[in-house]
Amino acid sequence: MEGWSRGNNVNGSTMLTIDTQTELNVSTYTESIEKLIERLIKLPGIGRRSAERILAYILQAPLEDIKNLSEAITKVKESVRSCRICNNLSEQELCRICQDERRKKDIICIVENPSDVSAIEKAGSFAGVYHVLMGSISPLEGKGPSDLKIEGLLHRIKENNIQEIIIATDADTEGETTALYLAKLIKPTGVKLMRLGIGIPMGSNLEYADSSTLSKALESRRQV
Fold it and tell me: Is 131 within 8 Å of 86 (Cβ atoms)?
């Protein structure tokens, strides 16, 4: 029997003992709970302990709240798409920013992800439009220029009389590599090319910067 061994007690009779080399890993949760935990762990930043805390909330919350949460997740998955022009998140063909006639359509701010758009918008210092690359160049992760939304950017520069481009990729190795690559592509077009200025610490991610830091960074952008 795996995990058990035979031995003799003091009166000579045979007894069974647990093998100390064998670890017993018996879950106290039901099958449905374990399946939920396994799926929660697949979410970024969620380990088993965090998943168990979420499980506790789900079990304690009113059923109506959990149904509303499930419906909201389903609706987002079914209705949210990428904007046809800038790749930002939208429920229509064009995102709200691209539809807004008050925005300066001849100034494009290039960011890595939709969350970066939200971060800059909170700063309230940028009146142009965006282009979301949907990632950055990262050889270690096997991501090259062909994996990014660059062709659409070049098309916009060629067709829309763009006057200025701000490269606002993250200030880490991947972000800087992406910025250098974009600069080589954009410089020959003659468009004024800027890099997001001081205020963003090296090695940091744009989405975690506070509004005042982002505002200062936009004000002090520099030419590439």
Answer: yes
- pLDDT-derived band of residue 16, with 50, 70 and 90 as boundaries? very low
Q: What residue ranges of the chain are covered by domains with CATH 3.40.1360.10?
A: 100-223
pLDDT digits (tens, 9 = 90+) for 161-213: 899 999 999 988 899 999 999 999 999 999 999 998 766 676 777 787 778 77
Structure tokens at 14: 């045979």
Q: Which residues contact 14 (CB under 8 A, 6 or more apart)?
A: 6, 7, 8
27/141 Cα distance (integer angstroms)? 35
160 HSE (CA, 13 A, CB side): 18
Task: Classify domain 100-223 by CATH number.
Answer: 3.40.1360.10
With CA atoms as reference, report the closest residue to 37 among 20, 21, 24, 55.
55
Global pTM reads 0.74
Q: How far is CA 204 from the centre of its chain?
A: 14
Q: 115: burial class by Cβ within 10 Å (0-12, 13-18, 19+)?
A: middle
